[in-house]
Every structure is written in C-alpha cells, then in structure tokens.
Design brief:
The chain is built from 14 helices and 13 strands. With 378 residues, it is of the alpha+beta class.
Length: 378
C-alpha cells in the first residue's frame, strides 16, 4: 500500500533515453495493438533483454480514459515494482527521445501458454496442474499488491524452457484495486476471458481476474472455451446470457475437486465466485498432493500439433523460433530455475475437440478495448 501512496503522491518527470544508442536490436519478436517488442542487447550492461516500445498515441488515448486526479500509474511504474517467481521481471522503464514509453525486461526463453493449449503435448499433459498452480500463485501475489490485471489470458502467460516456470506478463491494463478504479465503465480486456460484471459495466474488483483465471484453467484442460466458439461480440454476450458448459461434460474422468474448483471460478455472480485466487490454488494443491503422479516414461496421449516451432502467445510460430512475448509485447531473459513439484494431470485429455482456425471464429487476439474503437463509449 505504501508503494501505491508513493505513486499517487505525484509523478516525476520521466528521463528521455536514446533507444538507438542504448540498445542493439537483435530481432523483432512481435507486435500487438499498442506496442512493438524486440530482443535486444543493452549496450550499457551487455545483457540480452526484452525491449517493449509502446505506441505513443494509443497509450495516451488509453490513459486519457482516467481522470488526471486519479493519478493512474503507467505500465512501467506497475511492472518494475513487481517481484515474484511467476511474474516477468521488469528491469527499467522510461521514454524514448520521441516520447514513446518503453520497458526493459528479462528475456524469457520459452513458449506461450496459448501454444501449449493448442498442441497439448507431453509438456502440457504432464505439467498442466503445476502450470495452473504457478499461474495462480503469480495472480495471488499481484492481488496482494492491490492490483487488478484485467487481461489474464493464455497469450499473456509464458512457460520458460527448459525450467518450465510459468510467468505472467503484460501489465498494460493493470489498475489499482481501489474504489476509484473499481467504478463502472472502462470495459477493457480480451473477449473470451471477460467477467460478466465487466461486460455489464458494473463495479469491478480483483474477482474479474479470478474469472479469467478459471476460463484459462478450463481451456488448459479442454482445449476450448466454456461456451460455444463465437465472434468476439457474441462471446461477450454468452458470458451474460448462458452458463458455461460443465467441464465434466467434456471430461467425465476429470478429478471432481479440480472440476468443482474451476466451475466455481466461472460463476456469473462474483459473490458466488472464489473471493481470492489463493483459495483456488489451495484446492489445486490439495488435488495435486492426492492424485497419482504421471508416469514420465509412459507416452502421453497423441495430440496433433499445428507446428513444431516455438510459438508466440497467440499460438503463432515465433519469428525467431526462440524467445516468446505476449500479443502486446512483453518478455524477458531466460528465467532462473525454480524447483518443480511433481506434476499431476488429474484427468484424461479429451479427444476431437477442435480449436478454431484464424478467420473462422474468435481468437485470443479478439481484444476488446473500447478506447481504441469508440471515443464516446465510457
């Protein structure tokens, strides 16, 4: 809370940096709706880093949604203060000579969670529950720091290789979990992961992230969303007008504790949802301790993979075949090893469940950001 008070106490002038002199751009990793991301060498330290450069005009347009008196922290201020094994480490932030906000991060070698959901390979099947727990731990930490992520989805999660450490990334939509920022309005996020109260423009808090976390967990097990695939607009409407498909309808053999935990996270009424991310993590930990550990020598169930390459968070092959970033451009260095608990899958992988191909239905890229599409929408 002291950090939030410091942030709201007034903004100091951000020093300008000549990015062309400070960084040697090695490769362009990706581009999102509001930023570009590069693998770069910091000439000041010699370190390989992830360099995220935000679009100046779009960033200003988004920040303008919030009245100046709220003193909303910018992405760099939020990201650099976060320190958790399951959150990407931001080393520095600032502005270019042209006034473009930028962030310098550890460079992560790995793949996006969205890619692992698509391919359902041995790594995913043998470590699924461990990945879910790690993601929940990162989200729980974020909430304890009094932030709301507002865009938790598989494209904003990286799994490092070979350590298999989950990293939550992209804090461009993060706001403080305080009354001024919980007020109705500001409907931003990714369509298939938006909580009903956010869609309805009702008061929101950290429980919208719990809903998104539950959708992500559902998808990690089933390779689909909890509703029939639809366009981004229809997907949002489904969250309001129909209940999610019971996960046991798709996976009859899924452990009941895991299934019940996920489905409670998908409750339309936030009061009936889990109230804290750590409550879900506790349930998943209990299931992990109770379930038999997978036989690592036994071949996993065959699942057709769309590509053998590394992928970007939207499931697309990474242009470098190496480091991975989220859709709007965040990443970092190869993560340090973290002791991994023995994984437990707790259920068989469903067969014949098809994820949509680009162009035929909603994708993770179906990003709802009203400020970018309708100035009069509030």
């Amino acid at each position: 809370m002291g950090f939030l008070k410091n942030l709201f106490g007034g903004k100091s002038k951000v020093p300008k940096t000549d990015l062309t002199k400070r960084f040697e751009l090695i490769s362009r990793i990706g581009q999102g709706s509001m930023s570009r991301f590069f693998k770069a060498r910091d000439t000041k330290t010699g370190r390989i880093v992830g360099l995220k450069i935000l679009d100046k005009e779009k960033t200003k347009k988004f920040e303008a949604r919030f009245p100046p008196e709220l003193k909303k922290p910018v992405e760099g201020e939020v990201a650099v203060a976060l320190d958790h094994p399951n959150i990407v480490r931001t080393l520095e932030w600032g502005e270019s000579l042209e006034g473009e906000p930028f962030l310098v991060m550890e460079f992560l070698e790995g793949v996006a969670l969205s890619y692992l959901i698509d391919v359902q390979n041995a790594v995913m099947q043998r470590n699924r529950l461990s990945f879910i727990i790690q993601l929940g731990e990162g989200l729980s930490y974020l909430h304890k720091q009094n932030w709301i992520h507002r865009d938790l989805c598989p494209r904003n999660v990286v799994v490092t290789e070979p350590e298999l450490v989950v990293k939550l990334i992209d804090f461009g939509l993060v706001v403080p979990n305080t009354p001024p920022f919980q007020a109705p309005g500001n409907r931003t996020g990714t369509a298939n992961y938006m909580a009903p109260e956010l869609v309805r423009r009702q008061k929101t808090n950290h429980r919208i992230d719990i809903y998104s976390y539950a959708v992500t967990c559902f998808e990690m097990y089933t390779r689909r969303h909890p509703w029939p695939e639809a366009t981004s607009v229809d997907a949002v409407i489904q969250h309001i007008n129909q209940p999610p498909i019971p996960i046991t309808q798709l996976l009859p053999d899924l452990d009941s504790q895991i299934a019940d935990t996920i489905m409670k996270g998908l409750e339309q009424d936030p009061a009936k949802r889990w109230q804290r991310a750590e409550q879900m993590v506790e349930q998943f930990r209990e299931a992990e301790a109770r379930l038999p550990k997978p036989n690592l020598n036994e071949p996993p169930q065959a699942t057709q993979a769309p590509s053998s390459q590394s992928a970007s968070p939207a499931g697309r092959p990474s242009p470098t075949g190496g480091g991975t970033t989220e859709g709007s451009g965040t990443a970092g260095r190869k993560a340090g090893g973290r002791p991994m608990r023995p994984p437990a899958t707790g259920g068989k992988q469903p067969g014949n469940i098809r994820r949509p191909k680009p162009g035929d239905s909603a994708q993770d890229d179906d990003f709802i950001m009203d400020i970018l599409s309708n100035d009069g929408d509030s």
